[in-house]
Amino acid sequence: MVDQQWQCLYCAGNSLEAHSIKGLLENMGVDVRLTGEALAAAAGELPMNVVEVQLWVTDNQRQQALTVIDGYLRTDYRDWYCGHCGEVNQGQFELCWQCQQDRDE
Ligand SMILES: [Zn+2]
Questions:
Q1: CB-CB contact of 48 with 15 (8 Å)
Q2: Is the pLDDT of residue 49 over 60?
Q3: Residue 68: strand pairing partners
Q4: How far is the centre of ligand 1, averaged over its atoms, from the C-alpha of 87 (Å)?
Q5: 2 CA to middle of ligand 1, Å?
Q6: Residue 87 has pLDDT above 60, yes or no
Q7: C-alpha separations of 61 from 10, 44, 84 in Å
Q8: CATH fold for the domain made of 6-74
Q9: 21 alpha carbon to ligand 1 midpoint, in Å?
Q10: For the chain, how long is the longest CA-to-CA vector?
Q11: Most C-beta atoms within 10 A of its C-beta, which of 3, 6, 94, 100?
Q12: Which run of H or of E encompasses 39?
């Protein structure tokens, strides 16, 4: 068996983002390794949410992983507040579920 070449695919701004992307990748059958978290834990004083976490994938899955990352970066998953009624909506919706107001208005 040939050793896999691991490459740093993406540098996440925090642990939460790293795990979100890791989940997406694993759903697509891509193996992922994270680095940075252990260091943060060892340092003890740094809160987990401000530590950069690197995602690593193998050479032969890199292209597939890049496609997933690309999709992730294009999609805005953040919740948004309706400008009309103030309702909170999930990022994938373009219209307010409460009053049908367009997200951008
Ligand atoms: Zn609304």
A1: yes
A2: no
A3: none
A4: 5
A5: 55
A6: yes
A7: 13, 33, 44
A8: Alpha-Beta Plaits (3.30.70)
A9: 29
A10: 59
A11: 6
A12: helix 37-43
Q: Tell me the CA end-to-end span of the chain in Å, nearest whole number.
A: 56
Residue ranges per structural domain of the chain: 6-74, 78-105
d(CA 97, ligand 1 centre) in Å: 7
Q: So what's the pLDDT on residue 58?
A: 96
From ligand 1's centre to the CA of 25, what distance in Å?
Answer: 33
Q: Locate tokens 């401000």: which residue?
A: 50
Query: What spacing in Å lies between the alpha carbon of 76 and ligand 1's midpoint?
Result: 18
Identify the CA nearest to 61 among candidates 12, 4, 21.
4
Q: Which residues surround ligand 1, an ion (CB under 5 A)?
A: 82, 84-85, 87, 96, 98-99, 101
